[in-house]
Amino acid sequence: MRPIELRFEVLSLAVINEHRDLEPWYREFNDRAWGPARVCAAVVAQHGAAALARLYPALGRRIHDQADKDFDTVIPAALAEAGLPVELADAAHRSDFDQEMRASTARAQQLVGEDLGTPTIAVDDVAFFGPVLTSIPRGEEALRVFDGVRLLAGCRAFSELKRARAEDLSFA
């Protein structure tokens, strides 16, 4: 509908929260998140950011929409869907790409500060955590959301918006 340059980068909640005191359920979530984040970092290192832009939604559909938390099956299936070598799934259980994952996460923290999560976005050289959406807007609605984010990014005083989640997540 109009050209927008979009680039995905790895931001790891596991890295952000690794030394924080967390509730047990959230600690388990973060500990398990190392695997998919490591695979994403491996994909960027070996195939570039465009490949991550294909992999990320394939992972999201399986993990969130289909509620499949078996990462050992989710990751290879998502890699195959994204047209990437399925062997990259092995990176989930290795630390080979942790340095790249930590560096990418650190870049996001430098832009936003310590109080960040996913998604973190940068628009017009301003970065912030959010917007958190329960589904993917399409067409004119997507443009309105993007324009709203750009408008907020242009206001130096903007800090935060938040409300309770009204729907389950959907990547459809």
Write up what this structure looks like:
This protein is mostly helical and about 170 residues long. It has a single domain, classed as Glutaredoxin. About 50% of the residues lie in helices and about 5% in strands. The protein is built from 6 helices and 2 strands; from the N terminus they run αααααββα. The chain has a two-stranded antiparallel sheet with strand order 1-2. Strand 1 (about 120-125) and strand 2 form a beta hairpin. Helix 3 (about 50-65) crosses helix 4. The longest helix is centred in the first third of the chain and has 24 residues, at about 25-45. The chain starts with 12 loop residues before the first helix and ends in a 19-residue tail after the last helix. The model has no long low-confidence stretch (mean pLDDT about 90).
Provide a compact summary of the structure.
This is DSBA-like thioredoxin domain-containing protein. With 172 residues, the protein is mainly alpha-helical. The protein has one domain (13-153): Glutaredoxin.
